[in-house]
Each structure stands twice: as structure tokens, then as C-alpha cells.
Automatic annotation (TrEMBL):
<keyword id="KW-0732">Signal</keyword>
<feature type="domain" description="Organic solvent tolerance-like N-terminal">
    <location>
        <begin position="230"/>
        <end position="384"/>
    </location>
</feature>
<dbReference type="GO" id="GO:0009279">
    <property type="term" value="C:cell outer membrane"/>
</dbReference>
<dbReference type="InterPro" id="IPR010664">
    <property type="entry name" value="LipoPS_assembly_LptC-rel"/>
</dbReference>
<dbReference type="InterPro" id="IPR005653">
    <property type="entry name" value="OstA-like_N"/>
</dbReference>
<dbReference type="GO" id="GO:0030288">
    <property type="term" value="C:outer membrane-bounded periplasmic space"/>
</dbReference>
<dbReference type="InterPro" id="IPR052037">
    <property type="entry name" value="LPS_export_LptA"/>
</dbReference>
<keyword id="KW-1133">Transmembrane helix</keyword>
<dbReference type="Pfam" id="PF03968">
    <property type="entry name" value="LptD_N"/>
</dbReference>
<keyword id="KW-0812">Transmembrane</keyword>
<protein>
    <recommendedName>
        <fullName>Organic solvent tolerance-like N-terminal domain-containing protein</fullName>
    </recommendedName>
</protein>
<feature type="transmembrane region" description="Helical">
    <location>
        <begin position="6"/>
        <end position="27"/>
    </location>
</feature>
<dbReference type="GO" id="GO:0017089">
    <property type="term" value="F:glycolipid transfer activity"/>
</dbReference>
<keyword id="KW-0472">Membrane</keyword>
<dbReference type="Pfam" id="PF06835">
    <property type="entry name" value="LptC"/>
</dbReference>
<dbReference type="GO" id="GO:0015920">
    <property type="term" value="P:lipopolysaccharide transport"/>
</dbReference>
Length: 402
């Protein structure tokens, strides 16, 4: 009898466990839920879907399939078309097409991705909400897009291609600040216009001014009868191709028989010329001579005169180069040298066809240690002849014999 209480306790415990097993059996679902079903809660097919933020539309898409995760924190969309993104209820991106889209509930961030053979595409506004009357959209293609509404920012990555007015731009990475109305493109940047193509590492775009600023490892090719190549620290220009292109810092220009260096220049498409100012140097080669890259480096050296004794050199305050026919006009403190012969004037004109330099106004030819005033000096680049006319002494020719 002493063990009776314990026996009663064991019997009650066993009965309780039996009841729990019966209850578990009836409560347990008859079908096991698959992982696929857990991942895809609230699944829709061929549907229009939209999202709101504080009562204002945030996004909308057409998709062949859409679903939410089990926590309903991420909305997944597949084969998206006619997508629109909004900034405080105002359209910021339109007609977005992508292979997949993810929308994050808390942050409202939208991520879109394309396929290797079929990139995502969209029309994206670079201007802010306050300028909605003038809001400008540009057609963009890329591999990936991320819209961050709280930052009013869009990021793109992978084989980016933009077409805006008469210009095409490509790169690997891009960030658009919709509030500041600016954009930055990086890595393997290329800008193509009908008259010029430019490669660089960084491009900054100011939507308010419609102005592009290019930096780092700049190389440009200007189209025309004369092949013109330019290297510089910075190139900036407007979308309006009637305005000048500004070229600044360590400029190195090569055009067939000419190498020119300077720090400031302007290129004008309509006039087909490049205007150097604030001091410039140019080396003119004979026809058929090959210009080498080291020639340009020598021009930038303080000892250029000693290094380039075998060349024809023009130095001036300003220089105008034609991209059409290769002619050059030098102005202000013009100095011309060739194999020991030296002359100076206010102006000098070089004919690329004739390979002749003509010095006019306040013309002087150096003879020994004296400067002799002349009416005009003609320099024959090919024949290496200086011909002075109308000097106070007499007409004469100078040629350095080999």
C-alpha cells in the first residue's frame, strides 16, 4: 500500500501522454507543405501588381508570375514589363522591363535584373520632383538596377548603355542622384557623338545644365579628313553639339604630321577647329615622316629646344588647328625654329597641303646674334628652308646643309 500513490501518479502521467499523442495526430496536417510552397506565399500569375508608401504609389509592374516570401517582406516578380517607379508619388522611372524584380517591403528598395542576352531596359528621369514640368527621361539598358527611394537614388551596373538626344554613352557602373539632378558613370566609359568619340574612366553629368564632365585616362578621336587624337586631364561639353567642347590639362594632340601640346583648348564642331590658348607648342614633320609618342613628350619638356633640333617647332600664345584640312594659325609671340634657324612674329600660318609656314606682322629673323626685321618669312618644312623677304638688308635664303 505504500507504493499506491506512486502507482496512481504513473498511471495519470501515462494517460496524459496518451491524450497528447491523440491530439497531435488529429492536429497534424495530412499533407506536408513543400519548401517551394513555403518560399512562394501569395503567388499570382500574369498579373498587374503595385505597392504603396504612405498612401502614395511606390511601384507598379506587369509580371508573368509574382509571389512573396513566407515573412512577406520581399515581393518577387518574373518577366516584368511596363514597370513604373515613383518618387513620393511622382513618376521617376517608366516602362521598365526586366527578367526578375525584387521589392523589399521595409526599405521600399526595388532591384531589377536582366539576362545576358536580354538586358533590362527603362526610361529614367535625371531631374528631381520639383522640376517635374521639365522632367527629362533617358533610355537606359543595363544588367542590374537598384532604386533606393529613401535616398532618391538609382544605381545601375553591368554593360550600361544610354541614348540621349544625339549622343550615346556606355559604362559599367552608374549612380543617379534624382534630388541633386546629377549622375556619375564609371569604368570603361565611352561617349560617342557624330563628330567625336571619347574614352575615359569617369563621367559626371549635370542634368540642370545638360553638361558632361569626363576625367581619368581620357583619349578622344575627332572625325574629319584629318585623323585627330587627343589626350587630356579633363574634357567637358554640353549635349547641344553646337557649343564648344572644353579640353583642359596636359593636352597632347596628334594629327598626321603634327604634334601639339598645351593646357587649354576648345573644339568647335561647326567650325571644324581646335583652338589652343594660354601658350602652346607644335612640332611639324615632313610629309611621310612618322610621328612618335615620344615627340609629344619632348614638346612638354623644358628642354624641348635642345631635344627637337631636328624638328620644325612653332610656339605661340594661341593656336588654331583645322580638323578638316590640318592647317594651323598661330597668334601672339610666335616663335618658329628649324635646325638652328629661328624666326619670330605676331602671326604664322601653316598650310598642311603645301607644307609651308608663313610668318607675318612684326617679323624678325635671327642671324647670328642679331634679329633682322623682315616683311615676311616663309618656312619650307619639307626642304628645310627659311626664306625672308622685304628685310631692311636684302632678300636671302637660309638652308642648313646636312
Amino acid at each position: 500500500m505504500e507504493n499506491s500513490p506512486w502507482r496512481i501518479i504513473f498511471i495519470c502521467a501515462g494517460a496524459s501522454l496518451f491524450l497528447l499523442l491523440i491530439a497531435y495526430f488529429f492536429i497534424l496536417p495530412k499533407k506536408i507543405i513543400s519548401i517551394d510552397k513555403i518560399d512562394k506565399i501569395t503567388s499570382l500569375k500574369n498579373a498587374y501588381m503595385s505597392g504603396y508608401n504612405e498612401g502614395k504609389k511606390s511601384w507598379e509592374f506587369y509580371a508573368t508570375e509574382g509571389w512573396s516570401d513566407k515573412y512577406q517582406q520581399i515581393t518577387y516578380l518574373k518577366d516584368v514589363s511596363k514597370g513604373n517607379l515613383y518618387e513620393d508619388g511622382e513618376l521617376i522611372t517608366s516602362n521598365l522591363s526586366a527578367s526578375t524584380v525584387k521589392v523589399f517591403k521595409r526599405s521600399k528598395i526595388v532591384e531589377a535584373a536582366g539576362l545576358e542576352k536580354k538586358q533590362l531596359s527603362a526610361n529614367i528621369a535625371f531631374t528631381s520632383k520639383k522640376n517635374k514640368e521639365k522632367r527629362k527621361f533617358a533610355g537606359i539598358k543595363s544588367n542590374f538596377l537598384k532604386y533606393i527611394p529613401n535616398d532618391k537614388r538609382t544605381e545601375l551596373a553591368g554593360n550600361i548603355n544610354i541614348k540621349e538626344k544625339n549622343i550615346k554613352i556606355s559604362g559599367e557602373k552608374m549612380a543617379i542622384d534624382h534630388n541633386e539632378e546629377t549622375a556619375k558613370i564609371e569604368n570603361n566609359v565611352k561617349v560617342i557623338r557624330s563628330d567625336i568619340s571619347i574614352n575615359c574612366n569617369i563621367l559626371a553629368y549635370d542634368s540642370k545644365q545638360e553638361k558632361l564632365n569626363l576625367f581619368e585616362n581620357i583619349t578622344a578621336k575627332i572625325k574629319g579628313k584629318q585623323k585627330t587624337k587627343v589626350k587630356a586631364d579633363n574634357i567637358s561639353f554640353f549635349l547641344d553639339d553646337e557649343k564648344d567642347i572644353n579640353i583642359n590639362g596636359n593636352i597632347e594632340l596628334t594629327q598626321e604630321k603634327k604634334n601639339i601640346v598645351g593646357n587649354k583648348a576648345f573644339y568647335n564642331k561647326k567650325e571644324n577647329n581646335i583652338f589652343f590658348q594660354d601658350g602652346t607648342k607644335a612640332v611639324i614633320e615632313k610629309g611621310g615622316a612618322l610621328l612618335k609618342e615620344e615627340t609629344t613628350k619632348k614638346l612638354k619638356s623644358p628642354d624641348a629646344k635642345n631635344l627637337l633640333k631636328e624638328k620644325t617647332i612653332i610656339e605661340a600664345n594661341a593656336l588654331n588647328l583645322s580638323t578638316k584640312n590640318g592647317d594651323v594659325r598661330a597668334e601672339g609671340n610666335v616663335f618658329v625654329s628649324q635646325k638652328g634657324k629661328e624666326a619670330k612674329s605676331d602671326y604664322a600660318d601653316y598650310s598642311d597641303l603645301l607644307e609651308i609656314i608663313t610668318l607675318t606682322k612684326n617679323v624678325y629673323l635671327k642671324k647670328d646674334t642679331d634679329w633682322i626685321k623682315c616683311e615676311k618669312i616663309t618656312v619650307f618644312v619639307k626642304d628645310e628652308i627659311f626664306e625672308a623677304t622685304g628685310s631692311i638688308e636684302a632678300e636671302f635664303k637660309l638652308k642648313i646643309k646636312d
